[in-house]
Amino acid sequence: MRELAQRLFGLIGRGRITRANPAPEQQLLQLVLTADELKDEMEHAEPFGFTACPKAGAEAIALFLGGDRSNGVVISVSDRRFRVRNLKPGESAVYNAAGHAIVLYEDRIEVTAPRIVLKAAEEVVADTPLLRATGRIEAAGDIIDHVGSGGSSLAAVRAAYDGHHHPENNVAGGDTGLPDIRVAP
Questions:
Q1: Which of 8, 36, 93, 116 has the highest CB neighbour number within 10 Å of its CB?
Q2: For the whole model, what pTM was predicted?
Q3: How far apart are CA 39 and CA 23, in angstroms?
Q4: Per DSSP, what are the bridge partners of residue 20?
């Protein structure tokens, strides 16, 4: 009976991460459980599609199959130092230790980071009636408006502006010169 009680007691462990190895196919963690029990190279069973390399000091919950403390797997890692706080019921977030976050609020999604890079092999589509920027917009390529109805490119508008003439008033048959200010490409 005592052996059964010890095995049941040993099924679950709580501790702190001391080291992470994200290189193997299954991330390996080292943690110190309560009573200073050191467990090394414990597999971290992460949910499909999500992965994170925890910092030392993060908290972990481990399961030990059959109560065998030599056969454990970490099922949950959290870190209260960096967690996004004050979410309403139903809201969620993805975050990291640097303060970057994607927060799915009830009425909006906010992405917070010093730099956001989107990489798409084919295209990025924003299907919205309004796309607003609060700062400057730069494009390495040409900008085309009214694409669905044969619009025009900004380069074509610039070329037309830079090369246009107006008939000179009060001078028979003469044109004005090119504009004094040209739009840089």
A1: 93
A2: 0.74
A3: 18
A4: 29
